[in-house]
Amino acid sequence: MTYANQLILDGNAVADSIKARLETRIASLAERGITPCLATVLVGDDPASATYVRMKGNACRRLGIASIRVELPAGTTTEELIGALRKLNEDASVHGILLQHPVPHGIDERAAFEAIDIRKDVDGVTTLGFAQNAFGFADFPSCTPAAIMAILDYYELPIRGRHAVVIGRSPILGKPVSAMLLNADATVTTCHSRTEDLPAIVRLADIVVAAVGRPNFVRGDWIKPGAVVLDAGYNPGNVGDVGYEACARHASAITPVPAGVGPVTIATLLKHTVDAAEKLGA
Question: How high is the pLDDT of residue 176?
Fold first, then answer.
């Protein structure tokens, strides 16, 4: 049994709406001789990371966005990676740069992120991009947090005055989505591995964002009847961070995994690349 009039938040529908709005913008850029271009940088041979990069490249091609794939061996040093990123910064034909994370151990990931030109930081991973997002004026907020906000907007789910609980505090997901919800006038509680009595806090939430990276972590009896549940997790076997069946019994709206937040994240990355192409104009 599910909550009355429950909404399944279809990420594919949201992603399609974003991409449809990009088509005319890409055509207008083409008339100026500009093809938006996303460069993805993959270090090492992690199968999951390689799959993500391939998915993003395929999404680019389907929409008419150029995609450059830079592959570096697992033994790449921080300095070598930064050098590769700086070359992309200097390449006028590249409008967006995505460093696939996590990078192999031994590389200073934060130093690598900081090497990305803020004008091409389409995944919102730099410190400056994070700060701009916190202040509410980032050109390119982190893609998954932006995708979560896009889903709430598409389905016209209220944020103002609601209590949002975010489970996870990573600098590219938990923290930025907390800031975005706060800027949208939600009251936000950000939880993490040291939060005491997490289930009791989640039970207070009107909006739950699960971004903890643990399969089926959020349980059904944690969800307040009528809450909106957004699952930003993706674990092996197409499993999210939310126990879907159990949580769906209580939620008024919930994202599935797959076909929830994931497709919207990719569509947001494409949008940011087009935004960057329009700003850079080359």
Answer: 98
Q: So which residues are the catalytic ones?
A: 56, 100, 123
Q: What is the DSSP letter of 235?
A: B
Domain that holds residue 180: 143-261
Residue 49, annotated as binding a ligand:
no
User: CATH number, domain at 45?
Assistant: 3.40.50.10860
Grouped pLDDT means (10 residues each) for the chain, 282 residues: 77 98 97 97 92 93 97 97 98 97 95 98 97 97 98 98 98 97 98 96 98 96 98 92 96 97 97 98 70
Where do the DSSP E strands lie in the chain? Answer: 7-8, 37-43, 66-72, 96-99, 163-167, 187-191, 207-210, 228-231, 253-254
**Residue 26: inside a domain:** no
Residue 18 forms part of a structural domain:
no
- Total-model pTM: 0.95
Domain assignment of residue 224, yes or no: yes
- Into how many domains does the chain fold? 2
Residue among 98, 110, 193, 186 nearest 148 (CA)? 186
Whose CA is closest to 112, among 43, 164, 214, 47?
43
**Residue 223's CATH number:** 3.40.50.720
On whether both 148 and 44 belong to a single domain, the answer is no
262 is in an annotated binding site: no
Task: Give the integer Cα–Cα distance in Å for 200 and 196.
Answer: 9
- As given in the structure block, the two tokens for residue 83 are 């050098």
Domain contains 10: no
142 is in an annotated binding site: no
Compute the half-sphere exposure of residue 127: CA atoms within 13 Å on the CB side of its CA.
6
